[in-house]
UniProtKB/TrEMBL annotation, chain B:
Transmembrane spans: none
Domain Oxidoreductase molybdopterin-binding: 35-179
Pfam families: Oxidored_molyb (PF00174)
InterPro entries, sorted: OxRdtase_Mopterin-bd_dom, OxRdtase_Mopterin-bd_sf
Location of the region described as Disordered in the Swiss-Prot/TrEMBL record: 1-20
Protein name, UniProt field: Sulfite oxidase-like oxidoreductase
Record organism: Jiangella rhizosphaerae
Amino acid sequence: MNARLEWRVAKLSGVHHETATARTLQLDVPGWPGHLPGQHVDVRLTDEDGYSTQRSYSLAAPADGDRIELTVQRVKDGEVSEYLTDTFSVGDPVELRGPVGGWFVWHPSRTAPVLLVAGGSGIVPLMAMVRARRQARSRAPFRLLYSVRSPSDQFYASELRRLARDDGGLDVATLYTRSVPTGVMRPPRRIGVADLEMYGWPPQFEPTCFVCGPTGFVEKVANSLVGLGHDPRRIRTERFGPTGG
Amino acid sequence: MGIVSPGFRRRRRDDDVELPPGQYLTQDFPVLSAGPTPNIPLDRWQFTISSEIGQEYQWTWDELLELPAEEPTVDIHCVTKWSKLGTTWRGVSLDLLMEEVETTADYALVHCYGGYTTNLPLEDLLDGKAWVVYEYEGSELAPQHGGPARLLVPHLYFWKSAKWVRGIQLQEFDEPGFWESVGYHNYGDPWREERYAGD
């Protein structure tokens, strides 16, 4: 009933630096079957001695034919993320398989309001949803809350600014936890119930909520949403651990 | 074996232990779940085994704690690639819970507080292979790790070790659970790397 997800050989066709420690990889994957926003791929690296290791990375954008994008955050001592952010060069091959995951996904045909809450590099699968919404010319109302340490840690900053400016159906609130750019009134602090109330949807609107970030962040946000009255069945979570290396 | 990744060198040295294919060692205890962590008051906690003819066998929280406990020390393997070795738990063997249950069913569908489900053959829950656990490393099981009680089936990928376990439905037919319905493998043997449907 289900065909096996085969390993494919992808080729790095382009690189875009998001921050000092994160970059977006454009990969050409012949025969890529397409994917839904929120899905991920497994990447497999193999060294000359035959040692092989795998990690999962979220797809950052809808597919463009055979081209896909991953954004990889370098993790300290992460042998895979350090390779993908430092060593891996345009033209190099890499093995991957996917798309994987059928739960933490947004279907562009859905019209219900969507609340996206990202912590740090947890923005990646949520950005894929924002981009898929635009690509599908969806009018589903989206609100994105993006919690990030400082302006220099932000992914996709100018694109998000542009998308939010040009589209009345998309609201973006960037919530800084350590340092804020000039002109931002909200003092740096961790995301709280007040932020979810101010920038999110009221539970009566019955939004589908996607929460992605480190475990502590996801626990806190998901519990706060439940506390505000959101139905737990409409809250979907995905966690990035420090072992995502 | 895969193609060589130009310039890639092994960093970790896990070679003194044998891990399932594609897994790496972690000393942390990462969390994976699909939704919010449910809040389960112990005075309303119940664990129910339902047989294929509708017979129910139930335990309250106090009744569970009164049963003879075991302290399995086991390796756990998450489908998201991390493995953690030598974890110690405390709980009740499924062999004991199943002792009085009359059944000829071949399959089990595990139900959880919060709505999560997972399926497995009944034989994978028996013969010292599975427990309902309520302690981890000598402390009560934290909510984000499945507390007050979770299933522990360490020979399968860890999503089968359902958090916040509420009951087991015995059935004559196999019925896919939560992750098994969205692209993950129906059985999930880490040593055969059965991560996704079709593996």
